[in-house]
Design brief:
The chain is α+β, with helices and mostly antiparallel strands. The protein is built from 13 helices and 20 strands. About 50% of the residues lie in helices and about 25% in strands. A six-stranded antiparallel beta sheet has the order 3-2-1-6-5-4, with helices on both faces.
């Protein structure tokens, strides 16, 4: 009876109904709070992506994973405006797109372009409209029946489109649309940040690739001359590591830092290479110098070419001089040779003056041949070869140089092979090589400290080549100079004692005979020059340096 009365009172007063409504409203409020919390998490994730290196695809994945918890969402895609074209940038899930990523959307009759141009959100359910638009075919192929298109703007500038699709065709509530529009605004910041970051990385990579691709040396130093950066060319030349600076550069770099002006200098390396080095001060926006750039270019080939051009000019001048010398000397030589021949006819061999007259005639003949050789060298005339004995050429040269060698107190030891075949070539030119080699050996002995000064001359047959060696125990040649001694006008002798043409001319003659000249030398121990000539050289040759 009492329980019945209490139940009746509860029904009349609406207590049960109030409790039911209270729990219903509480459940709804909790659901709304959970939804709001999820929305805040999505916004937070988007904002996080602004600060970290996160791809847009990862951002979209995080967004859709959170959205699907409280909102029906089957497909989300991002289109970015690039060079006045709307490009499909990202789609999630990746298998949900029918058009290719990075494909462009045509402007005409486009739902996306309409949203971007009009700055409005478009909500469309395909079952309730027969409107045709460019994207419809692709969306239907992806089984999307309801779409929400949100324009993405930043600083009142359109940068893209966020498209969200559903397969069930359901519509979005005003609250969902408001949240998604807010999401699009935050996503705009993330997109701009990603684009800026990508551009910075691309520019940095482009600069580094360009920096490395330059064949010339580029090194960046700070004010303390510590290496901040260097390209591969600099590392190959200097073999430099951080905190290391080549001593040859310190003066140039310090001068630039002190003068605050570009500087220039030539750098010479042990491998005979030459670099033109330029230094430039580096300034910040306040015109304060905080470092210096070194740019160095390998000009070894250029300098050699310039030297060759200079040498060519000298050789051309020699050719002109030789013609004048020949005319000037031929007349007195004709008189000397003619008178010596007349005196020889009137003298007997046992006459003491006979050998002197013979030497006069031989020297006159040799002088005439030397003049002819000089003209031939300058004009590169053709030479016809004849058979001759290399041993005979050696003896003839020694006979002419006998007085000079005796005066210098040089002993000459001969080791001439008696089995040498005759050589086909120009005897007077081969004699010119022998003269140059012997005189160079004598000059090296004159300035040496050795008491016993000796020249050893050998001839031998090696295979199909005849070999002549001239060895001395003089001062020798520095290893760094061995590659230059055959260059025209290169000499280590004093101005009045050498022209730098002897070995150059000799090497040219040997090469014209199909042979070569090799040298081995050690400081303070002597040098050995080896002339190698083939038994069958060219029949007709050109003599050049």
């Amino acid at each position: 009876m009492v329980e019945g009365k209490q139940e009746m009172i509860a029904l009349l007063t609406g207590v049960k109904s109030s409790k039911r409504n209270y729990y219903t409203e509480l459940k709804s409020t909790v659901e709304q709070l959970r939804k709001k919390n999820m929305q805040l998490e999505i916004i937070n994730d988007v904002m996080k992506s602004i600060k970290v290196d996160m791809s847009l695809n990862d951002v979209l994945k995080n967004v859709i994973d959170k959205l699907t918890v409280f909102m029906k969402c089957d497909r989300i895609c991002l289109l970015v405006l690039k060079n006045e074209e709307l490009v499909l940038s990202n789609v999630y899930p990746e298998k949900s797109h029918c058009s290719k990523v990075y494909s462009t959307v045509f402007v005409e009759n486009s739902l996306y372009w309409s949203s971007l141009k009009n700055k409005e959100t478009i909500h469309l359910q395909f079952e309730q409209t027969d409107d045709e638009f460019f994207e419809k075919q692709f969306l239907l192929e992806a089984k999307i029946n309801s779409i929400l298109v949100l324009p993405i703007f930043i600083k009142n500038k359109g940068i893209g489109i966020l498209s969200i699709g559903r397969k069930d065709g359901a519509c979005w509530s005003d609250e969902d649309v408001s949240f998604l529009e807010n999401l699009a605004d935050h996503l705009a910041v993330s997109i701009e940040n990603t684009q800026l970051y990508t551009e910075v990385v691309r520019s940095k990579q482009h600069w580094e690739d360009t920096f490395k691709a330059v064949d010339d040396m580029i090194v960046i130093f700070d004010k303390n001359l510590h290496i901040l950066q260097s390209n591969d060319a600099a590392k190959n030349v200097f073999n430099c590591e951080p905190e290391e600076v080549d001593e040859r550069l310190k003066t140039l770099l310090q001068t630039t830092l002190q003068s605050l002006k570009p500087e220039y200098s030539d750098l010479y390396f042990d491998n005979q290479s030459i670099f033109e080095a330029y230094t430039y001060p580096i300034q910040n926006n306040q015109n304060q110098v905080y470092g210096v750039i070194l740019y160095a270019k390998d000009v070894t080939g250029k300098r050699k070419l310039e030297a060759q051009l200079l040498h060519s000019g000298k050789l051309a001048a020699i050719g002109e001089m030789a013609a004048g010398i020949a005319h000037e000397l031929n007349s007195p030589l004709t008189a000397i040779l003619g008178n010596s021949q007349i005196l020889l006819r009137n003298s007997q061999e046992e006459d003491p003056a006979y050998s002197l007259l013979t030497d006069i005639k031989n020297c006159g003949d040799r002088s005439k041949k030397i003049i002819k050789s000089l003209l031939t060298f300058s004009r590169q005339d053709e030479y016809l070869f004849e058979l001759f004995s290399l041993n005979e050429a050696v003896n003839q040269v020694l006979h002419l140089l006998k007085y000079q060698l005796q005066k210098s107190e040089v002993d000459v030891n001969l080791e001439l092979s008696d089995r040498l075949p005759k050589l086909l070539g120009s005897q007077q030119q081969i004699e010119q090589i022998i003269v140059n080699l012997i005189l160079n050996a004598r000059d090296a002995l004159e300035i040496s400290d050795h008491i016993n000064k000796e020249i050893v001359i050998k001839t031998l047959l090696v295979g199909n080549k005849i070999v002549l060696t001239v060895q001395d125990n003089g001062i020798g040649i520095h290893e760094n100079m061995l590659s230059d001694i055959f260059l025209p006008f290169y000499t280590t002798k004093e101005m009045e004692k050498g022209t730098g043409l002897g070995l150059s001319v000799s090497f040219g003659i040997a090469k014209a005979h199909g042979g070569t000249i090799e040298v081995k030398s050690k400081l303070n121990q002597g040098s050995t020059f080896t002339l190698k000539l083939p038994l069958q050289p060219p029949r007709v040759i050109e003599v050049s340096s």
